[in-house]
Specification:
With 187 residues, the protein is mainly α. It has 2 domains: 106 residues, P-loop containing nucleotide triphosphate hydrolases (Rossmann fold); 55 residues, Histone, subunit A (Orthogonal Bundle). Helices cover 43% and strands 7% of the residues. The protein is built from 10 helices and 5 strands. Helix 3 packs across helix 5 and helix 7 packs across helix 9. The chain is elongated.
Amino acid sequence: MQLAQRLNSIIISADSRQVYREFDIGTAKPSIAEQKLIPHYLIDICEPTETLTLAQYQEKAKTIISQFTPLCPPLARGMKGGSESPLSNKELALLVGGTGLYIKSIVKGLKIPRVSPQPELRSQLQSLGQKQLYAMLCQVDAIAAQKIHSNDEVRTLRALEVFYVTGKPISQQQGENPPDYPILQIV
């Protein structure tokens, strides 16, 4: 909060639990008063019954970040005419949070398959058991199988889910595309 005030910046939450309304306990969610002091984004944007995927988070965060021109902030402040972004007087955004994958999705520009969770497909696959699922993964995507531990049911299921929905191995759909704006990481 103090750094954001000193830098005249906004805060973009990178916390996978702060996005949910009513998840106020145990999330270190800033209070309403704190949110009024410094503009906060991506807090309380989903109902607890909804699922916000990593790809959706990344898209929302990139949209907010794109409202900045960090490579030449003086030009952004001096623009005349047209409709200016409500953030144009801010010089930078602070991506703050406790979910490393959310942060990595932005700073490394993770390429994420745009496949939403498929509960019915997952249920069918889970009924086969992890040993068979991993054997299937080895057949359809040997590259992903090398990166995923044979006991990792979550990642095995996701890789198969992406394959069966898109017809393409997840390993061909992943990667990194780092943003072209400068990033300073403070830990």
